[in-house]
Design brief:
Helix content is 31%, strand content 22%. By secondary structure, it is an alpha/beta fold. The chain folds into 2 domains: 226 residues, GTP cyclohydrolase II (Rossmann fold), CATH 3.40.50.10990; 233 residues, Dihydrofolate Reductase, subunit A (3-Layer(aba) Sandwich), CATH 3.40.430. The strands form 3 sheets. It has a 9-stranded mixed β-sheet, sandwiched between helices. A 7-stranded mixed β-sheet has the order 1-2-3-5-4-6-7, sandwiched between helices. α3 packs parallel to α12 and α5 packs across α6. The radius of gyration is 27 Å and the shape is elongated.
C-alpha cells in the first residue's frame, strides 16, 4: 500500500487533449458547506447502519451510512470509509455494465464485518458527474465501440467531473479527519488529501468481473490508474488471513465475506454443504441433481474443498454422482477423500477409487471387512474398518478417526442422509445451504432430522445470506447455539432408516 503522497494522477494522453476542460474538481482546496438534515437507522441484510442525510450548498442531497464509533481518538485507528458515487443503473437496477452496485454491496458487507466505518453515498455523481441521461448517451457510443472515457469526450464532457467537497464536509461533520479509504481509484485519495482529510491508506475493493463489464474495468485500470486485482483471484491472500484487521486489506471482498469466518476459525472445524431446490429437494425423482444449482455454486463448493483437510461423502452420493471430490474450479489443494460405506457397496470403477489425485479413506464396517477379503485397491486408497451402529457410523466416531490422522478441518458434502446425521449429532460449526430458485415438486429430500413439535422450539442459529449468481446461500453458524436434548443414535437411525428409499 502506497502513501497518498506517492500517488500520481494517471496519464490521460490523447483523450485529455480532446477534452474541453481538464478535470480540476478533485483538486479543490475548499470544503463546500453541508447541512445535516436527518439522522435515523437503516436495517439491511448486512446489519443495522446509522443513516444520516445531508444537503450541500447546491441543494444536492447525500447520505452517510455509518457503523461503530468513527472517532480518531478512541484508540481503534482511522475508520474505513468508502466514497461511493451514485449510479442508478448499477446500484438500483443491478446493471452488469459496471461494477458499481456490487462494489456498494461489498463495501457495506466489509464495514459490517469489522463493525466500524462509513459509506458516503454521493449524489450528483452519475456517469462520473455528467448526469444520468448523458451517461445513457455514452452507453450508446460504447455500444458502437468506444470505451467509457472516449465516449465522455466524444460528447464534450470531462473524463471525470466529480467533486468530493461534500464528502469532506460530511466527514468533518462526523468528526473524522483521518481515514483508510476503501477504493481502487487513486484520484479519490488525492482529492480528499487536498481537501484536508488525511488518508493514511487506501485499501482496494475488488469484486468479480463479468463479461459485460470486463472492458469497462480494464479501461479504469489501464487508463485511469485504478488498482488491478491479483491474478490469482486473491485466494492465497484469503488462505493467509488470520484476523479481521487483515480482512480489510487487499483481499477479494467476495471471498472474505463468504469464507473469512472459516479461515479465522481456531481449532478443529466441521462444516457441511448442500444445494437444494426451493422446495427442499437435492435431486429429482430419478436422482438427477447435477445441474440443480449454478456453476457459481459449484465453484463455491470447490472453494470449500480447498479450505479443508478432508471431504466426507456417503456411499449413495458416490454411486449416484460418480464424484471426484477434488479442487478443479479454483486454486487450492485437494482434500483427503473420506467415503462412508459400511457395507462396501461403492462400485470398484468409481472415480474416487480409480484416480490418484487425492488420498482416499474408505470407511467400512469392521464385521464386513472381516467376513470377506478386501478387494484390490489402488495405492491411494486405504480401507479403514470401523465399528458401526445400526448399519452406519456415528459422526463423532468419524471425526475422531480423522482427527487421529491429523485431519481436523472437515467438509461434509453429501448426501442428504449424511449431512442430516451430522446436523442431528450437533457436531457442525457451519452449514452452507444453497437454495436454487427451482421447484422440483418431489425427489430426493435434503436435510431431515428429529424435529420439534412447535416452531418456536426449532433451531434458529445465526445466519448470513450470500448471493451466488441466482442462488441464495444460507451460512448457518451452528458453533454457538445451545445443544438440543440428546437423542440416542438408535432413535436417529430409526428416523433416518424410514427415508432410506428416498435419501442419498
Amino acid at each position: 500500500m502506497r502513501a497518498v503522497g506517492e500517488e500520481t494522477l494517471p496519464s490521460v494522453g490523447r483523450w485529455r487533449r480532446r477534452t474541453k476542460r481538464a478535470n480540476v474538481s478533485t483538486m479543490s482546496a475548499s470544503i463546500a458547506p453541508v447541512s445535516r438534515v436527518a439522522a435515523t437507522r437503516l436495517p439491511c441484510r448486512h446489519g443495522v447502519f446509522r443513516m444520516l442525510g445531508y444537503r450541500d450548498g447546491d441543494g444536492t442531497e447525500h447520505i452517510a451510512l455509518t457503523m461503530g464509533d468513527l472517532g480518531n481518538d478512541n484508540g481503534a485507528g482511522p475508520p474505513t470509509v468508502r466514497l461511493h458515487s451514485e449510479c442508478l443503473t448499477g446500484d438500483g437496477f443491478g446493471s452488469y455494465r459496471c461494477d458499481c452496485g456490487e462494489q456498494l454491496d461489498a463495501a457495506l458487507a466489509q464495514i459490517a464485518a469489522v463493525g466500524r466505518g462509513a459509506v458516503i453515498y454521493l449524489r450528483g455523481h452519475e456517469g462520473r458527474g455528467i448526469g444520468l441521461l448523458e451517461k445513457l448517451r455514452t452507453y450508446e457510443l460504447q455500444d458502437d465501440g468506444l470505451d467509457t472515457l472516449d465516449a465522455n469526450v466524444e460528447l464534450g464532457h470531462s473524463i471525470d467531473a466529480r467533486s468530493y467537497d461534500a464528502a469532506a464536509g460530511i466527514l468533518r461533520d462526523l468528526g473524522v479527519d483521518t481515514i483508510t479509504l476503501l477504493s481502487n481509484n487513486p484520484a479519490k485519495a488525492l482529492a480528499l488529501h487536498n481537501l484536508g482529510i488525511k488518508v493514511v491508506g487506501r485499501d482496494p475493493l475488488w469484486v468479480p468481473s463479468r463479461p459485460e463489464n470486463a472492458r469497462y474495468i480494464d479501461t479504469k485500470i489501464n487508463r485511469m490508474g485504478h488498482a488491478a486485482p491479483p491474478q490469482d483471484d486473491c485466494w492465497a491472500d484469503l488462505l493467509q488471513m488470520q484476523t479481521p484487521a487483515v480482512a480489510v486489506g487487499p483481499t477479494s471482498r467476495m471471498l472474505v465475506d463468504r469464507y473469512g469466518p472459516l479461515v479465522r476459525h481456531d481449532g478443529p472445524l466441521v462444516i457441511a454443504q448442500m444445494g437444494q431446490s426451493a422446495d427442499g429437494f437435492i435431486a429429482s425423482r430419478t436422482g438427477d441433481g447435477a445441474e440443480l444449482t449454478s456453476d457459481a455454486d459449484r465453484e463455491h463448493l470447490h472453494r470449500l474443498r480447498a479450505l479443508v483437510d478432508a471431504v466426507v461423502v456417503g456411499v449413495n452420493t458416490v454411486a449416484a454422482d460418480d464424484c471426484q471430490l477434488t479442487v478443479r474450479a479454483v486454486p487450492g489443494p485437494n482434500p483427503v477423500r473420506v467415503l462412508i460405506d459400511p457395507n462396501r457397496r461403492i462400485p470398484p470403477h468409481s472415480k474416487v477409487l480409480q484416480d490418484n489425485q487425492a488420498p482416499t479413506l474408505w470407511l467400512v464396517d469392521a464385521r464386513t471387512a472381516a467376513a470377506a477379503p478386501t478387494p484390490s485397491t489402488a495405492a491411494h486408497v486405504e480401507v479403514v474398518p470401523m465399528e458401526s451402529h445400526d448399519g452406519t457410523f456415528e459422526p463423532e466416531a468419524i471425526l475422531r478417526e480423522l482427527a487421529a490422522r491429523g485431519l481436523h478441518r472437515v467438509l461434509v458434502e453429501g448426501g442428504g442422509r449424511t449431512v442430516s446425521r451430522f446436523v442431528q449429532a450437533d457436531v457442525l460449526d457451519y452449514l452452507f445451504l444453497t437454495v436454487a430458485p427451482t421447484l422440483l415438486g418431489d425427489g430426493v429430500p435434503g436435510i431431515r432430522f428429529q424435529g420439534t413439535d412447535l416452531v418456536r422450539d426449532a433451531l434458529r442459529p445465526p445466519v448470513h445470506r450470500l448471493l451466488i449468481d441466482n442462488d441464495t446461500c444460507l451460512r448457518f453458524d451452528l458453533s454457538h447455539r445451545a445443544t438440543p436434548p440428546t437423542l440416542g443414535m438408535e432413535t436417529v437411525a430409526e428416523a433416518l432408516r424410514r427415508q432410506d428409499s428416498d435419501l442419498r
